[in-house]
C-alpha cells in the first residue's frame, strides 16, 4: 500500500519578513548543498532572500557581511566562487560597497550528480582535462569532474566522489590542477586516451605522498618538486641511475640540500664530483663525501664555487692521504730528484770542462828555473 506523506513546514520567518525561502529535504538529500562550501551556502541563502524582479539581486556588501558574520574578503571570495559555479552572473558597479548580480535559478536547483551526468554526456574525460589545464582558473566542480574522469564510468561510485571531495577541501585548486596535468601526461605516455586501468591509482599515490609530506599549498609543492629534481641530479652525479625516492642514499642527498646549513645544488654537485675524481680506487662512500667535503663546506661557511675551489687548492691539495694526492706528491718528488740529478750532471760536466782547460794550459815551471 502506498503511504501518504504530509509535508511539514517549519517557518523561520518573522512578521516583518518580505521574502520566504522554501527548501525541501529531498533536494538536500540528493546533494543540493554538496556543490557549495560552508561560506558559499550562507551567502547563497542571503542572495536567495534578496531576489528582485527578473532574478536580479542587489546587496550592500558591508550589510551582508555583518548579517552573515563574515569578513569582507571572505564574502567577496564566496561571491566569486558562486560566480565560477555559474550560480550568479555579477556586474561591476562604480560603488565599491554595492554588489549587483543576476541569479541563475536553474543552476541553483541542479544537484551535483545531475551536473556531473550532464558533463559526462557532453564531453569526454580527455576534453574535460584539457579544458581544465588550459583554463586560468577552475571551480571545484570542474576540478572534481577532471579528477574523476580518470576512472571508468562504472567505477565512479559514491566512495570515489567523497574521496575527491576531501581532496578539494584539503588542497589548493592550483595543486589539484597540477595533479590533473601530471596524471594526464602519464596517461598519454602509457597510450591511454580517455581513461586507463591504473591511472587513478597513480593519481592517488601522488595525493598520498602529498599527505605524508604535509604539502597542502602550491608554494610547498613547487619547493618539493625543486628538491626532487636536484636530488636526482646529485644521485646521477654519484652514479645512481635507478632509484626510489625513499632510499637512504636519496635521503642523505636531501639532507645536504635542506636545513639551516643547506648547500646549493651547485656546491653539492661539485663536492660529489671532486670526491669521485680523487677517489680513484673506486666509488667513494657517502660518508667519505660528507667527512671530506660536505661537512667542511658547511663548517667554513663556503657558499659559492669560487670559494670552494680556493679551499680545495689551499687545503685539500696540501694534504697527503688519498690516492690522487699521493700520486701528485710522488710525481713532485720524482721531478725533484730528476732535477737534482740533472743539476749534478751539469756540475760534473762543468768541473770536467774546467779540469780539461787547466790541463791544456799546464805550464812546467821547473823547465824555466834559473
Automatic annotation (TrEMBL):
Recorded hits in Pfam families, A to Z, give: DnaB_2
Which residues lie within the region annotated Disordered? 317-354
Q: Where is the composition biased (Basic and acidic residues)?
A: 317-335
In this protein, which residues make up the domain named DnaB/C C-terminal?
A: 161-224
| Transmembrane segments annotated in the record for this chain | none
Q: Which family does it belong to?
A: Belongs to the DnaB/DnaD family.
> Per its record, how is this protein called by name?
Primosome, DnaD subunit
Amino acid at each position: 500500500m502506498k503511504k501518504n506523506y504530509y509535508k511539514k513546514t517549519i517557518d523561520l520567518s518573522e512578521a516583518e519578513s518580505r521574502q520566504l525561502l522554501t527548501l525541501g529535504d529531498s533536494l538536500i538529500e540528493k546533494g543540493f548543498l554538496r556543490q557549495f562550501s560552508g561560506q558559499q551556502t550562507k551567502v547563497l541563502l542571503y542572495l536567495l532572500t534578496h531576489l528582485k524582479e527578473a532574478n536580479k539581486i542587489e546587496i550592500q556588501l558591508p550589510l551582508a557581511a555583518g548579517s552573515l558574520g563574515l569578513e569582507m574578503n571572505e564574502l567577496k571570495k564566496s561571491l566569486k566562487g558562486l560566480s565560477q559555479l555559474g550560480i550568479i552572473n555579477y556586474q561591476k558597479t562604480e560603488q565599491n560597497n554595492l554588489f549587483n548580480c543576476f541569479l541563475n535559478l536553474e543552476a541553483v536547483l541542479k544537484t551535483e550528480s545531475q551536473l556531473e551526468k550532464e558533463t559526462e554526456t557532453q564531453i569526454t574525460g580527455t576534453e574535460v582535462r584539457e579544458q581544465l589545464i588550459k583554463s586560468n582558473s577552475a571551480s571545484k566542480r570542474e576540478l572534481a569532474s577532471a579528477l574523476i574522469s580518470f576512472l571508468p564510468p562504472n567505477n565512479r561510485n559514491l566512495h570515489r566522489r567523497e574521496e575527491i571531495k576531501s581532496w578539494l577541501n584539503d588542497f589548493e585548486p592550483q595543486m589539484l590542477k597540477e595533479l590533473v596535468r601530471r596524471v594526464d601526461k602519464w596517461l598519454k605516455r602509457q597510450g591511454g586516451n580517455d581513461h586507463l586501468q591504473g591511472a587513478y591509482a597513480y593519481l592517488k599515490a601522488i595525493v598520498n605522498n602529498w599527505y605524508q609530506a604535509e604539502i597542502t599549498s602550491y608554494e610547498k609543492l613547487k619547493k618539493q618538486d625543486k628538491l626532487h629534481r636536484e636530488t636526482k641530479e646529485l644521485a646521477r652525479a654519484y652514479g645512481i641511475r635507478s632509484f626510489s625516492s625513499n632510499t637512504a642514499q636519496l635521503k642523505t642527498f636531501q639532507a645536504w640540500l635542506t636545513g639551516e646549513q643547506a648547500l646549493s645544488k651547485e656546491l653539492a654537485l661539485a663536492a660529489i664530483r671532486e670526491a669521485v675524481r680523487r677517489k680513484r680506487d673506486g666509488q667513494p662512500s657517502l660518508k667519505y663525501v660528507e667527512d671530506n667535503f660536505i661537512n667542511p663546506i658547511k663548517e667554513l661557511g663556503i657558499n659559492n664555487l669560487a670559494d670552494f675551489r680556493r679551499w680545495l687548492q689551499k687545503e685539500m691539495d696540501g694534504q697527503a692521504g688519498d690516492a690522487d694526492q699521493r700520486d701528485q706528491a710522488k710525481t713532485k718528488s720524482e721531478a725533484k730528484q730528476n732535477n737534482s740529478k740533472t743539476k749534478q750532471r751539469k756540475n760534473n760536466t762543468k768541473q770536467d770542462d774546467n779540469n780539461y782547460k787547466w790541463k791544456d794550459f799546464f805550464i812546467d815551471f821547473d823547465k824555466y828555473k834559473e
